[in-house]
Amino acid sequence: MSSELRIETTEATRLHVSCQTEVEVKHVVGLHARPAVTFTRLAKSFPCSIEVAVNGSDVWLNGKSIIKIMSARIRKGSVLRIRADGILAEEAIKALKELVERNFDEDKNHGRTG
Amino acid sequence: MAERDSLKATSASSGVAYGPVHLGELPDAALSSRPQSASGYQALMDAIETSVDELEALAGRSDAESRDIIDFQIEVLRDPTIAETAEARMNAGENIVFAWAGTLDDYIGELETADEEQVRARAVDILDIKNRVLCALTGTPIADFPAGSIFVGRDMEPSRFLAHDWSGGGGIALFNGSAIGHVALLARAKSIPMVVNAGRFAVSEGDYIRVDADSGAVAVHADGARVESASPQSISTFTHASPCDNGEVRTADGTRILLSINVNDPAELDSVEPVTTAGIGLMRSEFAVSSVADAASEEKQIVIYRRLLKWAAGKPVIVRMLDIGGDKPLAGLGVPPAGPTTDLRGIRLLLAHPEIARVQARALLRAAVHGDLRVMLPMVTFPSEINEMRSIFHEEAVRLATRGIPHPIPAIGMMVEVPAAAVMLDTFETADFFSFGTNDLTQHLAASSRDGANSTVVHRATIPALFRFLEGAMRLAAKGGKPVSICGDIAGDPQWLAGLLAIGLRHFSVAPVQLPAIRSAIVGLRADGTKAAGE
């Protein structure tokens, strides 16, 4: 599975863009409550829309909704497609992808996995 | 004003009370504004903000692990899709409180079925915020008045009566009001002296006043000389007079009669020994589940029903589903038009707003594991209404099953209080039992509302017609061989007992205060209602 960051600029303005990326979840118990909080809070800090699809699904979920993220049952090994549309989309995609790769900062914040 | 004005009034609940006046003016403004505030989308947003503020304050004094949970709860409260879903449900006609509770209940149900224990464990955190927001939505409770006061006003709302602490005595004197209205019924159940139709009289807050509900009089500028006659009476004495016969009483010729009790508020059970009754024949859930937020809260209702079942210790507990609409508004539910003449009431309202019925059905199904719970449907007119409600119970039972929650399906019976149903009782094959609600039946037979100025007189004059009517309904009920009881006020009044026995009634459900009087009346009569020899 590719983990390249693909950026498709569809708008003339540099600020309003559509971006998409793929990233594999390595966190041992998947996206349960605490990682989901970290993810949606970061997503909400960007003004663009952010959507997530899991394991090749064509259902795009609101990435700012913890309920949607939690009920997507994102487990270890799941591949997340994240797309953003709007102002700062590029930065949003980069930050969210890095967060997933950093295991949602779980180790740094808590030193535990539960 | 004269020194000691004595005013003539109608007794609505016997006894004598003496105390300082509390002036209870304001019903109109308060009643019309509350449903508005609870039904607006902005009210939900405000309640969510209030809840977030509370949680943030809580997080400030919590350890890291608790903060994780609180952070999760705050994130759920700020979830944009929740607000969207709730708004969509509201646009589809749901009351906003139910839209909120229903949205969260759906997510809770999803999480509960997750494979991962960590995800399942979050369901309770969402349940917690669901109820936190419901609490915030109830807003400011109606201001209570000092214990021991005499409530004086044009009329009194049931919710205000129920919210008040009557343990310090007190009484009620209404300028208008009705002796057969809902507050009168509640006052009799709690032995609170009450008079109605006193006419408007001038008193000030804190003036001492004497309510003599035995003779139907109000002494406005009463002096303290009569204090001793009006000391708060014990409301628990009647239980000591009742033998531990489990509510099984024999007539003079040995026929077994069952005596159950009517309950409006679980607190009433504190003064009743379960061994003196055959169980709860009627729990009027609308008096215990008195706001729209309570009606939307499965958990709050389960607590109420469990308390009844625990008290009954295995005896039957019949819970009547919310009998709202018409002259019994549910605080905060702005949907049905208010007023005694509305068609949307009782089971019709529950079926028109299934979101209300579904929450109550789930709470009843879940509580039913704790005892012998039975469900009674209010204001049933047609057999199809019972079938529709039964479907709701079955659908909710399936939903509970997928969540692994135990849920015995209770017997479902009906109140017989609409004349159209009473004359067709043999067609109600799907009802598991019948109970005659004579208060509404009388009202509808006489085409007279229960809060009108002449309602007491009209209703009394209607009683011979009521008896003739009940006699016919009893014959139809007997065809199906289903259990029949009577839970209207008339069942607790010894003067009508002979007539009720004569038409074949054998199970009476009465206010706890009426138990001793009815019990002693039964033993003096034969099963056909005639007086026993030597009486």
From TrEMBL, chain A:
| Keyword flag Membrane | no
GO terms assigned for molecular function: transferase activity
- Residue ranges occupied by any HPr domain in the UniProt entry: 18-107
Per the record, the domain of life is Bacteria
For the keyword Transport, the answer is: yes
Classification via InterPro entries: HPr, HPr-like, HPr-like_sf, PTS_HPr_His_P_site
Known CDD domains for this protein?
A: PTS-HPr_like (cd00367)
Q: Which UniProt keywords apply?
A: Plasmid, Sugar transport, Transferase, Transport
Pfam families cross-referenced by the UniProt entry:
PTS-HPr (PF00381)
Return the PANTHER family for the record.
PHOSPHOCARRIER PROTEIN HPR
What NCBIfam families does the record tag this protein with? PTS_HPr_family (TIGR01003)
The task this protein performs is described as:
General (non sugar-specific) component of the phosphoenolpyruvate-dependent sugar phosphotransferase system (sugar PTS). This major carbohydrate active-transport system catalyzes the phosphorylation of incoming sugar substrates concomitantly with their translocation across the cell membrane. The phosphoryl group from phosphoenolpyruvate (PEP) is transferred to the phosphoryl carrier protein HPr by enzyme I. Phospho-HPr then transfers it to the PTS EIIA domain.
Task: Please give the name of this protein.
Answer: Phosphocarrier protein HPr
Native source species: Rhizobium gallicum bv. gallicum R602sp
TrEMBL record, chain B:
The biological processes this protein is annotated with in GO are: phosphoenolpyruvate-dependent sugar phosphotransferase system
List membrane-spanning regions.
Answer: none
Q: What is its EC number?
A: 2.7.3.9
Q: Which GO terms describe its molecular function?
A: kinase activity; metal ion binding; phosphoenolpyruvate-protein phosphotransferase activity
Keywords, A to Z, come to: Kinase, Magnesium, Metal-binding, Plasmid, Pyruvate, Transferase
Enumerate the spans annotated as Phosphotransferase system enzyme I N-terminal domain.
9-122
User: Which stretches make up the PEP-utilising enzyme mobile domain?
Assistant: 145-216
| InterPro entries assigned | PEP-util_enz_mobile_dom (IPR008279), PEP-utilizing_PTS_enzyme (IPR050499), PEP_util_C (IPR000121), Phosphohistidine_dom_sf (IPR036637), PTS_EIN (IPR008731), PtsI_HPr-bd_sf (IPR036618), Pyrv/PenolPyrv_kinase-like_dom (IPR015813), Pyrv_kinase-like_dom_sf (IPR040442)
Domain PEP-utilising enzyme C-terminal: from-to ranges: 249-522
Name any cofactors this protein relies on. Answer: Mg(2+)
PANTHER family reported in the protein's UniProt record: PHOSPHOENOLPYRUVATE-PROTEIN PHOSPHOTRANSFERASE
Concerning its family, UniProt says: Belongs to the PEP-utilizing enzyme family.
What protein is this chain from?
Phosphoenolpyruvate--protein phosphotransferase
Which species is the source of this protein? Rhizobium gallicum bv. gallicum R602sp
- State the taxonomy lineage: Bacteria, Pseudomonadati, Pseudomonadota, Alphaproteobacteria, Hyphomicrobiales
